[in-house]
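Quick one, T. Sequence first:
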Amino acid sequence: MSDSTTAPVLTAKDFATDQEVRWCPGCGDYSILAQVQKVMPTLGIARENIVIVSGIGCSSRFPYYMNTYGMHSIHGRATAIASGLKASRPELSVWIVTGDGDSLSIGGNHTIHLLRRNFDVNILLFNNQIYGLTKGQYSPTSEENKITKSTPFGSIDHPFNPLALARGADATFIARSMDRDPKHLQSMLLRAHQHKGASFLEIYQNCNIFNDATFEIFTEKSTKPEETLFLENGKPLVFGANQNKGIRLDGFTPTVVSLENGYTASDLWVHDERDMYKAQILVRMFDDPNMPSHLPRPFGVFYETDRPCYEEVMALQIDDVIASKGKGDLDKLIRGSETWTIGQ
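Structure tokens:
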């Protein structure tokens, strides 16, 4: 084992491979890859102790482009494979790269169970609200009435809200960022890594071929200040080009108020990442048709809490069995206690 004091200082280039990056020119995945490669050297983890696991989709080519260990696995099952890896090698830093179709359609069941079990892994969900790799069918996050190759008259499905789904599955860390805000994305990647437990980071990612400009209102300079709300723990919810608007709660209903018409920061909703009840409101702010006014889209850490990690509890259980019963008897375990002998 090498001495950490003499280990070379890594850079983003050390995490890049010699593989040709095969995404469409202009794809948001390029930015996400660049931010992940910039953040990885700051984690203080050797490359051989980092694993990128992906499923199937455009985003799932990620392991080819990261100079770490990795696996391009099965459609929707990256979460299951990563769970097994973390259970057997808990010391590894495991990252799951997936898309809205991969993780919320065929892989939806695996995603929610990983979150409730709380393995100490990081899920990066690239949400472009479309199936990109298979050329433009609607996905579980596509808006209603979405016209695509598979829905020529418009989708009649109600879409998933990824963060609401994660909150419902009792995820211990949920956050949102976007491909076109590099600094914010880097900060969210760091927060996800620092969390002990399953972190769920939704990343708005532009598919410029099959679903271009879906998130443009949140990324363009002319509209971003009025349409985005960046959450900061312990600070009031303020937004606007001149930071002159805020969010306050009217009962359980968030409303927009002007800080130029009698309201002050002390009147506003103060964000608390540990408040699970207000997190329920935050994740639903943009998709509740009953909201009285147009609300900005929140970005940042919505919720974080502490809960034992599955792999740690499993290890303790195994240690307890060994300590109390000594060496196990596999034949006895397979036979179980509910067996009987049938006479001649």
